[in-house]
Each structure stands twice: as structure tokens, then as C-alpha cells.
Design a protein that fits this description.
Number of strands: 9
Number of domains: 1
Order of helices and strands: EEEHEEEEEHHEH
Protein name: Glycine cleavage system H protein
Distance between the termini: 7 Å
Largest sheet: 6 strands, antiparallel
Helix content: 10-25%
Shape: globular
CATH superfamily: RNA polymerase II/Efflux pump adaptor protein, barrel-sandwich hybrid domain
Strand order of the largest sheet: 1-2-3-9-8-5
Low-confidence stretches: none
GO cellular component, one term: glycine cleavage complex
Structural class: alpha+beta
Mean pLDDT: 96
Family: Belongs to the GcvH family.
Strand content: 25-35%
CATH architecture: Beta Barrel
Function: The glycine cleavage system catalyzes the degradation of glycine. The H protein shuttles the methylamine group of glycine from the P protein to the T protein.
GO biological process, one term: glycine decarboxylation via glycine cleavage system
CATH class: Mainly Beta
């Protein structure tokens, strides 16, 4: 299981890469493995400002649909549109081409509440 040390994580299995005042967000390798083959990614919150832990979209796998929870408050400024045609990128490259959204962070103090790689490994038993 791949859990990069340079990312932050949530208990809901999203990962966060902080770049200045922007957060790039996707789902973890663990999450995509649990979901199985991802067939659709839906984000209808582009250009909206949401609070931490609000639902920003869904990931649909062959057997289930899972909500995606925003790890940090902010405005959703980008959606990875390549996932519309190739949702399987979330399975094959969850930390790279499988990113889902970018958020302009509105409260940087929330970053401290995210999990580091060691804490996330403990959470998933890795």
C-alpha cells in the first residue's frame, strides 16, 4: 500500500497536498483499493465555497457510491476533468493523475488537524 510521507490525510481516506494557499485533494491508495474499480467521479461543487467535512462530490465504483468529504474549508477552484473520460486514473495513479479537486484554502489553521503519514498508516493498519 502506497502512503506518501509528503502528504496529509483524513480519517475519511482523502489525501491532501498543500501548495501555498491551494490544496490538491484525492482519495488514498487504501480507499481506491477498498472501493474497487472506479467507474465515475462526480463533483458538482466547482466554484463553490464549502466548509471542512462537507460533501464535495462522489466516487462511484462497480458495487458502491462513496461520498467525498472536504478536508479543509475553502473554494473549489478546479476539478480534474480528465476523470470524466478516465475515472480509472483514481485506481491506477491516486496520488498523481488521479487527483480530484483543487481548493483555495480559507482557513490554514485546519491543516494542523490532518493526519500525517504515520498516523494514517496506523488508522488503516499498514
Amino acid at each position: 500500500m502506497n502512503i506518501p510521507s509528503d502528504l496529509k490525510y483524513t480519517k475519511d481516506h482523502e489525501w491532501v497536498r498543500i501548495e501555498g494557499d491551494t490544496a490538491i485533494i484525492g482519495i488514498t491508495d487504501f480507499a481506491q483499493g477498498e472501493l474497487g474499480d472506479i467507474v465515475y467521479v462526480e463533483v458538482e461543487t466547482l466554484d463553490e465555497t464549502l466548509g471542512k467535512d462537507e460533501v464535495f462530490g462522489t466516487v462511484e465504483a462497480v458495487k458502491t457510491v462513496s461520498d467525498l468529504f472536504l478536508p479543509l474549508s475553502g473554494e473549489i477552484i478546479a476539478f480534474n476533468e480528465s476523470l470524466e473520460d478516465e475515472p480509472e486514473k483514481v485506481n491506477t495513479d491516486p496520488y498523481g493523475e488521479g487527483w480530484i479537486i483543487k481548493v483555495k484554502i480559507s482557513d490554514s489553521s485546519e491543516v494542523g488537524g490532518l493526519l500525517g503519514d504515520t498516523e494514517y498508516k496506523e488508522l488503516v493498519g499498514a
